Amino acid sequence: MSTGAITPYIDVAQLVLYAFWIFFAGLLIYLHRENKREGYPLESDRSNSRVAVQGWPAVPEPKTYRLRDGRSVSVPRAEAPVPVTGARPVGPWPGAPLQPDGDALASGVGPGSIAPRADVPDTTFEGTDRLVPLRLDPAWGVAHEDTDPRGLDVEGADGRVAGRVVDAWVDRAEALLRYLEVELAGGAGRVLLPMNFARIDRRRVRVASLLGEQIARVPRTRDADRVTLLEEEKVMAFYGAGTLYATAQRQEPLL
């Protein structure tokens, strides 16, 4: 037999190859199982006490993570389904699409869906608030090559002026602007405008996803100088819902 051979049909290289295949398959199964620590078991119209929609491999056993702020989180954990109160199924069959019933922009379905994130502000590695208005941290500002949006009017998709930009919120972890702070017309308060829903030129800031009057209904933050993860989710969802529900025409087929 040649060097490395165990039998005339098996050698060390062959065993190493088989061992690698087994290890790699086990790694894929492990990673796929760990991926189910959040979001599983799935919710289903057919679910009951005897059915767990989780697929294979099954959901892993709970594991507790200690966060740097002293809190601990165990996942997966038992969570009550988030009730959908602003929409109804279009039909009686399982999996029927949900149709907004009432205020479509706040229905929480379709492009306006939200995840129940923690109602606390996101933080940097140092433990400070990650998102802050520029007025609280003068070390940050708008690059001189770009148009400073502060002072510009904010227009909806219909051209109606909803308010004026009074500040911008910087993401100190990523070194970019995340939100514009808009003072609504008529002194109706202030709302946040995500940068990815804003189109800025030298004369105005345009919001294509919402009409001018709808911008005044954007969810507010509890604190004028802080925003929580859950509040961010609700703000983004409101603008996202507008891409489909701002006008009746947007819900119609293109052809």
Description:
- The strands form 4 sheets. Strands 7, 8, 9, 10, 11, 12 and 13 form a 7-stranded mixed β-sheet that branches.
- Among the domains are: 5-35; 121-251, Photosynthetic Reaction Center, subunit H, domain 2 (Photosynthetic Reaction Center, Chain H, domain 2, Alpha-Beta Complex), CATH 3.90.50.
- It contains 2 helices and 13 strands; from the N terminus they run ββαβββββββββββα.
- A hairpin with a 2-residue loop joins strand 1 and strand 2.
- It is of the alpha+beta class and 255 residues long.
- It comes from Piscinibacter sakaiensis (Ideonella sakaiensis).
- Residues 145-209 form the PRC-barrel domain.
- One of its GO terms (cellular component) is plasma membrane light-harvesting complex.
- This is Photosynthetic reaction center, H subunit.
Question: How does the helix and strand content classify structurally?
Answer: alpha+beta
Question: How many individual helices?
Answer: 2
CATH superfamily of the domain at 121-251: Photosynthetic Reaction Center, subunit H, domain 2
Low-confidence stretches: none
Number of strands: 13
